[in-house]
TrEMBL record, chains A, B:
Top-level taxon of the source organism: Bacteria
InterPro entries: Cro/C1-type_HTH, HTH_LacI, LacI/GalR-like_sensor, Lambda_DNA-bd_dom_sf, Peripla_BP_I
PANTHER family: HTH-TYPE TRANSCRIPTIONAL REGULATOR GALS (PTHR30146:SF109), LACI-RELATED TRANSCRIPTIONAL REPRESSOR (PTHR30146)
One term of GO molecular function: DNA-binding transcription factor activity
Residues covered by the HTH lacI-type domain: 5-59
SMART domains with a match to the protein in the record: HTH_LACI
Record keywords, A-Z: DNA-binding, Transcription, Transcription regulation
Name recorded for this polypeptide: LacI family transcriptional regulator
Domain HTH cro/C1-type: 2-53
Pfam entry (one): Peripla_BP_3
PROSITE patterns to which the protein is assigned, alphabetical: HTH_CROC1, HTH_LACI_2
The organism's taxonomic lineage, starting at the top: Bacteria, Pseudomonadati, Bacteroidota, Flavobacteriia, Flavobacteriales
Amino acid sequence: MKQKITIKTIAKELGVSTSTVSKALKDSHEISSETKEKIQAYANHYNYKPNNLALQLRNQKTKVIGVILPKIVHHFFSTVIMGIEDGANERGYNIMVCFSNESYKKEVETLKVLSNGSVDGLIVSIASETLENKDFNHFKGLVTEEIPLVLFDRVVDEILCDKVVVDDVGAGYKATKHLLDNGNKKIALITTPNHVNVGALRRQGYEKALIEEYIKTNENFIVEVDEKKDIKKQIEKVFDEDIDAVFAVNEIYAANAMRIAKEKGFKVPEDMSIIGFTDGLISEYSSPSITTIAQHGFTMGKQAVALLIDRIENESEVFKPKKIVISSDLKLRESTKPSS
Amino acid sequence: MKQKITIKTIAKELGVSTSTVSKALKDSHEISSETKEKIQAYANHYNYKPNNLALQLRNQKTKVIGVILPKIVHHFFSTVIMGIEDGANERGYNIMVCFSNESYKKEVETLKVLSNGSVDGLIVSIASETLENKDFNHFKGLVTEEIPLVLFDRVVDEILCDKVVVDDVGAGYKATKHLLDNGNKKIALITTPNHVNVGALRRQGYEKALIEEYIKTNENFIVEVDEKKDIKKQIEKVFDEDIDAVFAVNEIYAANAMRIAKEKGFKVPEDMSIIGFTDGLISEYSSPSITTIAQHGFTMGKQAVALLIDRIENESEVFKPKKIVISSDLKLRESTKPSS
DNA sequence: TGTCAACACGAAACCGATTTCGTAACTTTT
DNA sequence: AAAAGTTACGAAATCGGTTTCGTGTTGACA
């Protein structure tokens, strides 16, 4: 990189001190307008830009927010990022994005790197491997160091910090209820393994809706997808059961279910209703398009970042973790029967 | 944030100088093993972590790469980010991600912020508004400041820097040729306005393939989609023409075409073949699934970041812009007739 | 016993800004 | 004319590290 122009250069060239330059550039009243003009003109001409690192070191803040996501090629997380970036920008922050790729080890490392003063705070959605391990010491470390932290979507109670979640139980209930209301009784659930708590919560909602209708949950109707294996094959198995509807906890599972249903000769939604989660492009462009729970990822991102920046800028405040619950909506499309 | 422990604290507590602490922590031979052990034990116990900002200021490098994308809720860009992050991590860099949201103004601002020393280099895909304006002074500024820059996918010749692109002409040709080879003659093209150069290049490939078969391009078969208006309506119009195939320059257009074709009663691929671009989830889960040009976003990201880091770490090298062309593959699926 | 090297450590400069405090040179007040 | 107040600027500390260049103390060797 080319030798950049600094305050020192300007000072030397113009025969003044660095303090004078600094003040002149901030239009301080301490400096005569004559000197100010001279300095400003010079700075302008040579396109002087204050060095951010120096400022960050001095101010002890970076105006950067670290974001760690399990993955990005996923409609929900993409929209969350958009929300975070948007909210951050509004308040003069930038975001530094990293991915854990669902790996515990990478999450620990990334957290370590980012917490070395590179960021003022962190927004994280926990990796599935970490949720499985149940080892959250790396997060607890952050808390004791008092580095502002906001968890979203995939959160755990053990970590004392602000959280933003969707009302997963309610959403699971809403989806299942919708199926029940339209005459479906034998509803399969395609979910994640139980350690991914959003999956577990959505399942709770599913079970709650069934119980209300005095339907016993049938374990054979429930598939816990292991993403390391072939997803489609695992989902296919539940179609051997006598089912008339599928509730999938994400888009991909729903799209797979749709495909399998069609292959098996079911008519959607006449013989088989399908509801997904995450209102992404797959659901929208599938045919028939898929009824789904819209998670409002953008809103979640904005809320998370607002929470975080408030925390960063009001350190003095007594620490009382907040939890924001974002409601989710059922987006009716063609894969379920119209409400009767 | 809690008062963090610094080298100064350690020095004071242990009654040594900061230089001694610094050296001890780097296991310098200048320090007696006795003192080293004492200092290291202390640092370890109090979980000392060197302040990144201080190091960055001193070393004049941040080990951070800025990435500016037009959007993220898009399979191609998501995969590119993954590639960039992956490649960056391998070489000890982090990425700072921003979005221009296709806006010229935001691109300029973001570029200004990031080039203040916050990053060692930049990877950018140009906003469509900027391409339309043809105002690239903000990029030229970077070049004269000698801040390493790599453009990918949406690039322009005016900017002298490294570039990574897909072989858009070739890909457009490949897609069109495939349609022609399978008996389609009246091929519609759903593309972007001409200022988005990837669209223009893919169109060139399309035209080239037609010319080879002595088919005159029919302007009525070509739709330049304005994303500010209703996408579907614009695409629908071309179906009024007598066409037997559609080549769309991205997933969304292809999915829309698929939907319209089905609505109009065409059988895909018997009556109507469809080829898309970007091998994303929509193409995969559409039914019938969509034949598409796979762009290898991950590879592009990795190549771009490798190019950038090489540039960052070998500033001495004479500057000769490199251009890497990533080949793209035709991924055959159900929306086109099997090769005869 | 004087000299020199090795050892172990500290002082101070440096990265690029900001900011407090001091002060010389005027101007105003009494 | 002395005291007080302005004006316009500079010196130096600071942020948290690294690194160069001393320097005092040993011990070995001639």
